[in-house]
Amino acid sequence: MTTSETREETVLEAVGKRRELVNDAVPEELPVARPERLYEASRYLLDAGGKRLRPTILLTTAEALADVDPLSVEYREFPTVDEDVGEIDLMGAAVSVEVIQSFTLIHDDIMDDDDLRRGVPAVHQEYDLETAILAGDTLYSKAFEIMLETGAEPSQAVEALDVLANTCTQICEGQALDVDFERRDDVVPEEYLEMVEQKTAVLYAASASLPAILMGADDDVVDALYGYGLDVGRAFQIHDDVLDLTVPSDELGKQRGSDLVENKQTLITVHAREHGVDIDELVDTDDVEAVTEAEVDDAVAHLETVGSIDYANDKARELVDRGKDRLEVLPDNEAHDLLDELADYLIERGY
Amino acid sequence: MTTSETREETVLEAVGKRRELVNDAVPEELPVARPERLYEASRYLLDAGGKRLRPTILLTTAEALADVDPLSVEYREFPTVDEDVGEIDLMGAAVSVEVIQSFTLIHDDIMDDDDLRRGVPAVHQEYDLETAILAGDTLYSKAFEIMLETGAEPSQAVEALDVLANTCTQICEGQALDVDFERRDDVVPEEYLEMVEQKTAVLYAASASLPAILMGADDDVVDALYGYGLDVGRAFQIHDDVLDLTVPSDELGKQRGSDLVENKQTLITVHAREHGVDIDELVDTDDVEAVTEAEVDDAVAHLETVGSIDYANDKARELVDRGKDRLEVLPDNEAHDLLDELADYLIERGY
């Protein structure tokens, strides 16, 4: 049995190696062309960092499916399940997913009026509102262009594009629900989980299932991998909500407790409200600049007392376990093990 | 020889009939689903009107290619060039293009801080900034989803998606150039025409060439139709710039001369500057609410004196004539004639 710490080391090493390859591929897929300011703004968040968890899941799922050792085959010339079809550019698909992620972050930061992201100014702060809207729009179409160039069979490319477009639609729907929830005080856990599925988990589901689609795997494999992504993606978001309350602000890259201050719904607050907690009274201010660490500490203690943080942690664990079970469609190999460990890591990571 | 007035009648009747069909198809392709506010905002501009010129060009090009009488064949079950392939949903493709157009209008109105569009409040005014960004993003992915459901052969669907994605990228690039031009006073006509090609004409080019792609026409036909779209699309925008100066505000649906007031570059101002006119001095104010009709009249008189409006009109005519020549790849038929007349209409229309 791997302990949580050695597992974290294994996962971080695996993620780190793929991150380097993805980071090298980003400027290849998205060179700074004319108009330069537009492309610089489009690349700004991508170049500022990010763990590349979604590309890592995409690349590792492909390795598990193809039954090859991790990092043993060039991602740019990856074997498909049907040998007659030839190779596909799996790295392109991985970058496409990360580009979609980056587009949503740029537009979300405008909508949520967030000034910081990955420790640097949000794009609308570093540039301006117009450029940030346009940078997001550019990444949007670029993601489709990149996904169209994997060299997959046309029928599989069409299916991949359909998943990508559908994913984007659902992300928009989820973000709309999230914005709507800020104005409501009667959101129940099921609604919250539906919102998280649309806003966050579908892109994990796309990441896990797209390699199977592009490589020509059977539908039941595609569906199981999609389900894995939905489960671990929701778990990831729930854990993110826990981290927002428990990790020091300097490690978070933003004010701890900012979700509470900004009245954002999380599984924790939804549970707490159902258990009689007046969420609006947990912190006095609605200004993240004004909240004190002591106020956040008191709020967290209160949420722990009613069991809301345990509830969120339990839910995340349940989802991860179910997601791992779905991986039974994959052969037993090192990449499969890594996908298991990645799932655990998503809810054990400290930031 | 058709006179300009009877031609306008013919074109308006043809456009009007297709507009009705397109208007019926919009709610079919884009029903108001959950979250309702998001989809209502997404539909707001589409439902507010619009001539549907791009869908009309798409539908008519298909009729010319298939050599069928205008409006004689169901657009939802349209014959392809290769009879083995079966039918395609051409109306879906037409709606997809209009949905892209609507997405760009919503985001452009935010960027340009325009309050009115088609005589109604812009989406960010009627709703709010967050909803307008998200409505545009939703239309973006929906356009791809709709285009993926035409029933075309996968290889042709992939090509169509590639054109659509590439079109969106170019529209973003063109909009970025347009924003950039507002800060510059040394833009030359070639740069302006490049910007207009990207910002406006590529969607006309997509509209004219997509039916050929989906129907499996030869590459030279696709290329010629794309060229037709680029030419008439640029002419359309140049004529739009002329109309901004010459059509009464109540017919325009916005203040006449607003481009001048807001310091927007047009082929007219770029030409005038090259001929010694101080564009910044043409109107005193930079507030569209404050400008008077007399000020706009004086500015227009000045621009006429140096020949800038004639120059723009001549350029638009030259482009339309070249575009019509490109249609020689099409069979001689009624739909072909209508595409000729549509091209003329684009630079003869009064609003």
Main β-sheet of chain A, in a few words? Answer: 2 strands, antiparallel
CATH superfamily of the largest domain in chain A: Farnesyl Diphosphate Synthase
Low-confidence stretches of chain A: none
Secondary-structure class of chain A: mainly alpha
> What's the number of helices of chain A?
15
Largest interface: A-B, 41 and 41 residues
| Count of the domains of chain A | 2
CATH topology of the largest domain in chain A: Farnesyl Diphosphate Synthase
Organism (chains A, B): Natronobacterium gregoryi (strain ATCC 43098 / DSM 3393 / CCM 3738 / CIP 104747 / IAM 13177 / JCM 8860 / NBRC 102187 / NCIMB 2189 / SP2)
Family (chains A, B): Belongs to the FPP/GGPP synthase family.
GO molecular function, one term (chains A, B): prenyltransferase activity
Cofactor (chains A, B): Mg(2+)
Describe this structure in words.
The structure is a homodimer of 351-residue chains. Chain A is mainly alpha-helical and 351 residues long. Chain A folds into 2 domains: 11-217, Farnesyl Diphosphate Synthase (Orthogonal Bundle), CATH 1.10.600; 232-327, no CATH class. Chain A is 70% helix and 2% strand. Chain A has 15 helices and 4 strands. Chain A has helices at residues 4-29, 36-47, 53-66, 90-112, 123-126, 129-147, 154-181, 189-215, 219-246, 249-252, 258-261, 267-274, 293-305, 308-326, 334-348; strands at residues 78-79, 87-88, 116-117, 120-121. In chain A, the strands form 2 sheets. A two-stranded antiparallel sheet of chain A has the order 1-2. In chain A, strand 3 (116-117) and strand 4 (120-121) form a beta hairpin. In chain A, helix 4 (90-112) packs antiparallel against helix 6 and helix 7 (154-181) runs antiparallel to helix 8 (189-215). The longest helix of chain A is centred in the middle third of the chain and has 28 residues, at 154-181. The relative contact order of chain A is 0.12. The mean pLDDT of chain A is 93. Chain A binds chain B through residues 34-35, 37-38, 107, 110-111, 129-131, 133-134, 136-138, 140-142, 144-145, 148, 153-155, 157-158, 161-162, 164-169, 172-173, 175-177, 179-180, and chain B through 34-35, 37-38, 107, 110-111, 129-131, 133-134, 136-138, 140-142, 144-145, 148, 153-155, 157-158, 161-162, 164-169, 172-173, 175-177, 179-180.
